[in-house]
Amino acid sequence: MTAISRSKKLVVQLAVLVLIALGTSFALEIVDPQQAQAQSNVRPPANAVTSPVGGTVPGASSGNQSDSEMWRAVRKGIKGTVSIPDKKAGQLVQSEGDAWRAVKNGPIAKWGVIGLGGMVALLVLFYLIRGKITVDHGMSGRTMTRFADMERMGHWLLAVSFIVLAITGLNITYGKYFLLPVLGKAGFATIAGAGKWLHNYVAFAFMAGLVMILVMWIKENFPNKYDLEWLAKGGGMFVKGVHPPSKKFNAGQKILFWLVIWGGLGLSLTGIALLFPFQFGFPTGMEPIQQMQFATTWHAIIALVMTIVVIAHIYIGTVGMEGAYDAMGSGEVDENWAKEHHSVWAKEKAKSRGGRKSKAVPAE
């Protein structure tokens, strides 16, 4: 037999086998379609409960659960297993995200605007009624050192970085309402992208400034016997000629100091968690996505509260009080200003200075 004859014979045999297989499958479909569908190379264990309807899914595509039961389980956060590294993908729906979004875009955004606008309005009203707080005895022309160069460096590092963070952070929350309609999508995208970059990196300067002022000023910011009197008299800011005694920092400045320290710590911890998501597992007892939602929520609340308070601090340190800016501007304050606003500190400073003369301010 030649090679060509053998090849033809092999082709014919294969064709016959294919026809037999197709005929057998067709016959099974006609005799018992359900039994044909149930054919599989995988066999269930001996004690497995077999399908009561011949291998098909009970209840069609919904199984033997109703749609409402299935989606209720999904909405409650039922989890499956995944083979990819991101295990969070095993949860189809994270319903807490709805609550987080509602709180962030609802009460936080709403009360943030009320707080910021309310503080500005209150300061304008205070200025119209009280006016600028002046030095009752006038400037003496002699100054004394209130803050050294390193102290002012720490203050300005913290202050400038906080202002940058506040502006870029407010843009994250409110930019789409106020800037987007003005700048358009392309312009707002550029501003928002640059703001995000600044927010991420300037945060480390803020943390450095926070550590600096904590180390330099913590010993001067514990309560003392003068603080209650200062608080009782409102710091003398509401009545002209009233000057309660205080040391280097009065009760109001101490409250601000501790608010900045604890608030800054909260901002730093939540900010680090957001900069490096899903890395720390804090707070415990929460799912990873819930931890990020927790960090975002508290970061926004703390930042808004601190911004509202710092607006008042900026007002008092600039246009609100005569001579106050000099303390952080040049570090030198007028003697009469020191005696009226920090009398105990001024006396201690004069005593430690001994017979040395004060610095005279050149006449303009």
CATH topological fold name of the domain at 103-354 = Fumarate Reductase Cytochrome B subunit
Kindly report the spatial arrangement of strands forming the biggest sheet: 2-1-3
Beginning-to-end CA distance, first to last residue: 125 Å
Give the overall shape, derived from the CA principal axes: elongated
Specify the CATH architecture of the domain at 103-354: Up-down Bundle
Strand segment tally: 3
The Rg value, from CA coordinates, equals 37 Å
The structural class is: mainly alpha
Number of helices: 12
What does this structure look like?
- With 364 residues, the chain is mainly α.
- It has a domain at 103-354: Transmembrane di-heme cytochromes, Chain C (Fumarate Reductase Cytochrome B subunit, Up-down Bundle).
- Helices cover 65% and strands 2% of the residues.
- The chain has 12 helices and 3 strands, in the order H-H-H-H-E-H-H-H-H-H-H-E-H-H-E.
- It has helices at 3-31, 33-37, 67-75, 96-130, 149-178, 180-217, 226-232, 251-275, 288-320, 324-329, 335-341, 343-353; strands spanning 142-145, 332-334, 359-360.
- The protein has a 3-stranded antiparallel beta sheet.
- Helix 11 crosses helix 12.
- It is elongated and about 125 Å long.
- The N and C termini lie far apart (125 Å).
- Mean pLDDT is 84; it is low at 33-41.
